[in-house]
Amino acid sequence: MGLFDKLGLSLMERVRPTLKPVPTPEDPQAVLAPVTGRPIALREVADPAFAEGMLGVGVGIAPAGDVAYAPVSGVVAADVKTCHALLIRSECGAEVLLHVGLDSVKLRGEGFRQLVRKGDAVRAGQPVLSFDRALMAERGLDDTVVVTVTNPGDFARVEVCCEGDVAAGAAVLRCVS
Fold first, then answer.
1. Considering only CA atoms, which of 107, 26, 122, 11 is closest in space to residue 98?
2. Cα 56 to Cα 90: distance, rounded to the nearest angstrom
3. How far, rounded to the nearest angstrom, does the alpha carbon of residue 8 sit from its chain's CA centroid?
4. 16 CB contacts (<8 Å, ≥6 apart)?
5. How far apart (Å, rounded) are the C-alpha atoms in residues 157 and 139?
6. How many Å separate Cα 5 from the centre of its chain?
7. DSSP output for 120-140
8. Fewest Cβ atoms closer than 10 Å to its Cβ: which of 43, 78, 112, 162?
9. CB crowding 120-157: b at 16 or more within 10 Å, else e
10. What is the pLDDT of residues 17-54, one digit of tens each?
């Protein structure tokens, strides 16, 4: 047991990620990358609920950092007790799920810090979650960040619009009316 453990300080309290907004495009139909990293086709995400499209149309991203930013401007419609996911209702009507890690619910909130709550207004690019990728790796969990539009039927189509590595704040999906 280390000194920080004796003092009751978690790794998330010891290491404070940089929490500053990322620049975002002005396209109200765009869904932005919540993290910088390598995109993963949703069908290749190692979780059947996402891979089979049960949770909407979207993309996974292998993250390079430990902060997730709001993928859209809107209102937080739902959050979870374990602090690893948010549902944001965007200004264009898209219901956007931001989910950090696969099977991350097993951590019961450990290593996550939710920066917004249900009912909060958020702006695209605003920091909304921080997470401990090292803890996830230590526990054998996949740290893939998934962003989906859960109501694709409300649009003519939802298209993936990213290639190669993406920066947080870059458009990865577009909701076409």
1. 122
2. 15
3. 28
4. none
5. 37
6. 28
7. -EE-TT-EEEEE-HHHHHHTT
8. 43
9. bebebbbbbbbbbbebbeeeebebbbbbbbbbbeebee
10. 445 555 555 788 999 999 999 999 999 999 999 999 99
Q: pTM of this prediction? A: 0.86
The tokens describing 139, both together, are: 């526990």
Question: What residues have CB less than 8 Å from 99, skipping those under 6 apart?
Answer: 50, 55, 84, 85, 145, 146, 147, 148
List beta partners, residue 40. Answer: 60
Structure tokens at 156: 């003519």
**Judging by DSSP bridges, how do beta strands 127-131 and 112-114 pair with one another?**
antiparallel
In the numeric block, which tokens belong to residue 67? 């902060």
